[in-house]
Design goal:
Layout (H helix, E strand, L loop, with lengths): L16 H31 L4 H28 L8 H18 L8 H33 L3 H33 L2 H16 L1 H5 L15 H10 L1 H15 L7 H7 L6 H23 L5 H22 L4 H21 L4 H12 L4 H29 L14 H23 L7 H11 L5 H6 L6
Helix pairs in contact: 1-5, 1-6, 2-4, 2-15, 3-4, 3-6, 4-15, 5-6, 5-11, 9-15, 9-16, 11-13, 12-13, 12-16, 14-15, 14-17
Length: 463
């Protein structure tokens, strides 16, 4: 069937300006917290004296177990019916838990023995993981109950991703440049947690869950959860690809190590962080308009391919010339800015597809699957990064002196391993077939605006 031309009109918002601003602010607060864990938990643990191999064990044990529980929490979200909404009550419950656990996680007493420090890390990490699951699944699902308009959902997801990137940049700037002057890890994290609280609370006061699918949400058993996920093949294709690329992206937890040992200056990480936010903000400005002309998955695949090529060029150029390093880092951040904004925009599409294929509206399970894969790749990335670090002979301790040649090993491994993961994910993504045109028809069918026969007669692909 030839591709049907899509007439895209200017988005007619169902959400209010206050909702959109609050949604944006929420992702700033949430990602101040997430960036701390994603980028620095390995560094913090080794700085306080926990060996790299132990850090690998902590990450693998705690985060894999947490990831496995995410789909079951998604099922709980779909079963529990609060009087004041489906997703907002969970957000209200989770905010104090995740903030308290974050502060505990970065407050390990230095006078403890290694075993005690490891036990503290495990306990705080478990609490943080529970809070973050309750925090993350509902905020992505909230988009589906705020509006049923595809373009508006895209706009909300864009402002969320741009805000997340801004928050990550703030963390990248503050930790390397100001951590010591503020008073160390614990004092810095307490300040960031307070800022996160201020920005996360407004969504609890403004969000309105106005959309209810025509297809009744049903009580879903464990077997039905697994059956639903098995039928949602595009969800698995997309997140399997992200799992591979994310798990091998050991350069992310190694950023501060690379700044310390390759570039000999932690503050350079602040510079690259600021450089990286510019393309992401630009992408956020252009993506809503581009998505009315170009299918967003096609845009994602193109920019992901470009980022891989530019990162390989940066690896070949090396780190000895700081000017060349900074230029190539900025060049690679341009397509990466687009992929970082777009990467979580496909879960609502998969949720609509799942509802269309099974007749069951299970957004909680679908977004829990997103959180599951995100946490699993984070666990594998953190554990693999720490394990490889230990294999290099890395010596724990913030002031430890590393062996000669350590910088070269760190650079080569930190570039080649992520590139291999990115290349493998691009191969898998060739099998992803959902597109904006067909998903909009699925959504209209799911909400009772079209019959299944009417929707299928106008689709580009058969599902």
């Amino acid at each position: 069937m030839k591709e049907e031309k899509i007439k895209r009109k200017k988005t007619e918002y169902k959400t209010t300006a206050a909702e959109r601003i609050s949604y944006s602010l929420y992702f700033i607060g949430q990602n101040l917290i997430y960036a701390l864990i994603y980028m620095y938990i390995n560094v913090y643990f080794t700085d306080v004296g926990i060996p790299a191999f132990a850090v690998a064990g902590i990450a693998l044990t705690v985060k894999v177990w947490d990831a496995v529980n995410d789909p079951f929490f998604g099922g709980l979200v779909d079963k529990v019916h609060f009087k004041k909404g489906k997703f907002v009550p969970w957000i209200k419950i989770s905010i104090p838990i995740v903030l308290a656990a974050t502060m505990l996680l970065f407050a390990i007493p230095e006078n403890m023995g290694r075993a005690a420090k490891t036990a503290w890390a495990v306990a705080a990490y478990l609490l943080w993981s529970v809070g973050y699951t309750m925090n993350d699944v509902p905020i992505f699902g909230l988009v589906m109950t705020m509006t049923d308009n595809q373009n508006e959902r895209t706009s909300l997801n864009v402002i969320g991703r741009v805000s997340a990137t801004l928050a990550s940049t703030i963390v990248m700037v503050i930790i390397p440049s100001f951590r010591e002057s503020i008073g160390g890890w614990t004092a810095t994290v307490f300040i960031l947690a307070a800022a996160a609280a201020v920005t996360m609370i407004p969504i609890c006061l403004t969000a309105k869950e106005r959309m209810t699918p025509a297809k009744e949400e049903q009580e879903v058993s464990l077997g039905e959860v697994l059956q639903y996920l098995m039928h949602n093949r595009f969800l698995f294709i997309y997140y399997t690809a992200l799992l591979i690329s994310g798990s091998l992206n050991i350069a992310s937890p190694w950023r501060l190590y690379i700044a310390r040992f390759c570039l000999q200056d932690e503050s350079i990480m602040s510079i690259t962080g600021i450089m990286g936010v510019i393309p992401t903000v630009a992408a956020g400005l252009f993506i809503p308009a581009l998505s009315r002309r170009i299918d967003k998955f096609r845009l994602y695949y193109t920019t992901a391919s470009a980022a891989l090529i530019l990162n390989m060029i940066r690896w070949a150029a090396g780190f000895e010339n700081l000017t060349v390093y900074l230029i190539l880092t900025f060049a690679a951040s341009v397509p990466s800015g687009f992929t970082s904004v777009l990467m979580f925009m496909f879960t609502p599409d998969c949720a609509e597809y799942g509802c269309y294929m099974t007749g069951k509206s299970c957004p909680g399970i679908t977004f829990a699957a997103q959180t599951f894969f995100a946490k699993l790749q984070s666990a594998l990335m953190t554990a693999l990064g720490a394990f490889i670090l230990g294999m290099t002979g890395f010596i724990e301790g913030e002031d430890a002196v590393q062996a000669e040649g350590f910088a070269d090993v760190l650079w080569n491994t930190g570039c080649i391993v992520p590139a291999a993961g990115a290349a493998a994910s691009l191969v898998i993504l060739r099998f992803y077939k959902l597109n904006d045109h067909d998903v909009q028809l699925m959504a209209r069918c799911n909400y009772g605006e079209l019959t299944r026969e009417e929707a299928e007669s106008r689709m580009i692909y058969r599902y």
